[in-house]
Amino acid sequence: MRVQLSGVHVEIGGVSGVDLDVEPGELVGLIGPNGSGKSTLLRTLYRARRPDAGTVRVDDDDVWRALSARRSAQRTAVVAQHSADGFDFTAAELVATGRTPHRSTPAADREIIARALARVGMHDRADRRYVTLSGGERQRVLLARALAQQGEVLVLDEPTNHLDIAAQLELLELVRELKITTLAALHDLNLATAYCDRLYVLSAGRVVAHGPPIDVLTPALLAEVFGVRAHLGVNPLTGRPNLTFAPRQEIRELQ
Amino acid sequence: MRSPHLISGRRYPLLAALLLAAVPVLLVAAVTYGAVDLPAADVWRVITAHLTTGRPPADVSGIDNEIIWNSRAPRTVLALIAGAGLAVAGAVLQTVVRNPLADPYVLGITSGASLAAVAVITLGSVAGLGVSGAAFAGACATLALVLALGSRRGALTPTRLVLAGVALSYLLQGATSYLQLRAQPDQLAGILFWLLGSVAGARWSDLTAPAVIVVACTGWLLSQARRLNALLLGDETAAALGIPVHRFRLVLLAVAALLTAAVIAVAGGIAFVGLIVPHAVRLLVGPDHRRTLPLIAMTGGLFLVAADLAARTLSPPLELPLGILTATLGTPFFLWLLRRETAVA
């Protein structure tokens, strides 16, 4: 399914006139400093924040005007940043909440839930309490819930936050293999470079650049948007482009 | 691997069946014992005769029939309804404000109901409303006020709701205390009984409205169990799962308030049932509302029937207000829960 955002404007949350497309099967990264409007923009796509202007379309249907909340949830699933963990769900029970927008038999639900857990490699921990899982395992359970939702569009809001490096790589490998149309807000620019087909750079609520990672993440753009000096090299292990950073000149002089 | 919940799989239907079977047993026991103990066989005959023929049986004395059918039976059934309603309302509110310390009174509606009830007791009827009617109206008015104070730009946030409810509660309790100070000595016992909750003096005619409301609301909530689960996971996730979060939360608040108001209008402010019963059930079967709600309704009802039986039999002829018993049983449980929460965190 194709995702098309055009002229999306959110007053509180600071998103002004964003145009963005994700082609079917594409993994598109959304990057930008804190407060640049990444999460707010994603919310307009998974129907948690109505845009004040502009349209959000999934597969040519306007998410806010043509689709009900339930119909939209059947198409678009999300792994959000914060998930309340105060209540004592097991991994399988948490994945089961992904079936909320669907009406299917309990037997069918159970099979879908089991398959989703197996897909993320968590089938042997289905009956573990969610709060006892590691950070990486929790994110995989949340991804399994998104899979159980059977959406054809996946939204990830900084899914690798607070994960150790192995778990970060595993999670993104997993997302990559799913080959679902995906829009992901990412903090780590090297992860974004390594896994995304295209990137959109958000700064103060506007798209300032978009395209293949290698074309977008120029030292000039990184200096302007993130306020850092950057060098684009090659990761000796993977042969992929690799960014290294240093504080801006004047900051170093101050020290 | 086995589920970490204490009761799972095939043991869940067994637990549900046990609780269901306990309902008629405890009801008959509660009608049998009291200031005067009656033969259980007579109790059974009176109840079945009334249920099948609508008339008292010929072979039981008039006074026994009166005690069984017109005094103990309605108050026991009211205890069942009230316990179920308060427990379900508490469970829903804990989910809606996503706070394990929430109970039916966190939104201040009991304080509103209490003030209105005490006002009628001390100052006399207002606009033709009796104590029950005034309590119901007070609860509704308070809910409207809390919703107005707790919303911001049309959206209800859990924290604002709780803070608005708690703040308003203090104000209303202050007003209630003032009325108590000005009350005549002969009115004080009635006020105290109302504030602490009691099912004494229940009549069959009082039961229809709360019974219909409790059954209808619990049934509807059960149909929303999956959406309630989703709401537990946060507003963002719930929205992504296709739930119109703000509207759903508003409806749930209204339903929980209706349940609470319907119960306290006839039974007064019975504390702790709505707090501890949902927690006790979750400890056993986990947080899934499809499993918890039916058990919470049954356990709440059974708990209050048992509490009322204790209230009548512990120190006869004195009858204790229900709130004293539920608090005595509830506080140790609550402190234990607090210790456990701290240990987990």
From TrEMBL, chain A:
Q: Which residues form the ABC transporter domain?
A: 3-229
Task: Give GO MF terms, alphabetically.
Answer: ATP binding; ATP hydrolysis activity
Which SUPFAM superfamilies does this chain map to? P-loop containing nucleoside triphosphate hydrolases
**Pfam families found in the cross-reference section:** ABC_tran (PF00005)
UniProt key word Hydrolase = no
Q: Which UniProt keywords apply?
A: ATP-binding, Nucleotide-binding, Transport
Q: Which PROSITE patterns match?
A: ABC_TRANSPORTER_1, ABC_TRANSPORTER_2
- Which domain of life, per UniProt? Bacteria
Q: Where are the transmembrane segments?
A: none
SMART domains found in the cross-reference section: AAA
Protein name in the entry: ABC transporter ATP-binding protein
UniProtKB/TrEMBL annotation, chain B:
Topology in the lipid bilayer: Multi-pass membrane protein
Question: Which GO BP annotation is one of this protein's?
Answer: siderophore-iron import into cell
This entry carries the following GO cellular component terms, namely: plasma membrane
Q: What is the lineage of its organism?
A: Bacteria, Bacillati, Actinomycetota, Actinomycetes, Streptosporangiales
Q: What is this protein called?
A: ABC transporter permease
| Segments passing through the bilayer | 12-36, 77-97, 104-123, 129-149, 161-179, 250-281, 293-311, 318-338
Kindly give the InterPro entries that the UniProt entry links to this protein: ABC_BtuC-like, ABC_transptr_permease_BtuC
Q: Which residues form the signal peptide?
A: none
CDD domains reported for this sequence: TM_ABC_iron-siderophores_like (cd06550)
* Residues in coiled coil: none
Where, per UniProt, does this protein localize? Answer: Cell membrane
The principal location of this protein is membrane
Q: Which SUPFAM superfamilies match?
A: ABC transporter involved in vitamin B12 uptake, BtuC
**What UniProt keywords apply to this chain's record, in alphabetical order?**
Cell membrane, Membrane, Transmembrane, Transmembrane helix, Transport
Q: Which family is this sequence assigned to?
A: Belongs to the binding-protein-dependent transport system permease family. FecCD subfamily.
* GO MF terms, alphabetically ordered: transmembrane transporter activity
A Pfam family: FecCD
